[in-house]
Request: fold
Amino acid sequence: MTPFELPPVPADAPVVERGVGFFETVLLLGRRAVLWDGHVARLLGSISEFAFPSPDRARIEAALAERLDLVPAAEGAERAARVSWIAIAPDLDSPASWRLDVSIREIQEATLRRRGGASAVTLPATFRRDSATVKSTSYFAAVVGLRHARRTGGDEGLFREPDGTYLEGTSTALVCWNEGSPVFAPGPVLPSVTRSAFLGPRTDRRPLTRSLVRNGALLLGSLTIATPIVRLDGEECRVPETMRRSLAEFNERLASDPALGTSL
Reply:
């Protein structure tokens, strides 16, 4: 039995009943996994943080390579890889209770459209992640947050602090351009792989107010890549030309720079 012929996950598995698991979504260009090193490091780091049994990098890469062999694509073709480490049995300290799942998926049309400029929606204060700094499969707030955004005319929802300042999107990092000195929220947010690649050594943080977002902000994510916010709750946002150029240059690097990807 191959890793892709495993039995269904039981309905009472911890990942189903409690959302116990971790995952990464990675942009594929043919067999090239964009920002692969960062995604694997975040996955393994999250597992290690909670002292759960863990796969090693070689096992993850072998599983993805096998999947790519089964579903080949043209060189440079865009797809998404989902790598998940999920709890399928109650004893969370037993390696046998954990399973590595790898799948290849098409990128949703809505995500591709968002790349041309995002229409963001402020989420209700009651919408909050339960593990904001970890890419866990406990993803209810993100799912209903994106649904809320789409039902109200947007294509991404923004989580907030209790004081109303912004944190991040449901599946994207939020960065304010801040007149060329980019900043992100000081509160609990996911350590975004794409944001880190875009900002490099810059780690300046400050509360992201509505006015700061409307004066120039961008969303970053593995499949969204980097895109400006063009509307917030239906109101037009400023898109500085320097920010637009920086986004275009970064997206071009993601597509072409060998240092920003790994061939599997």
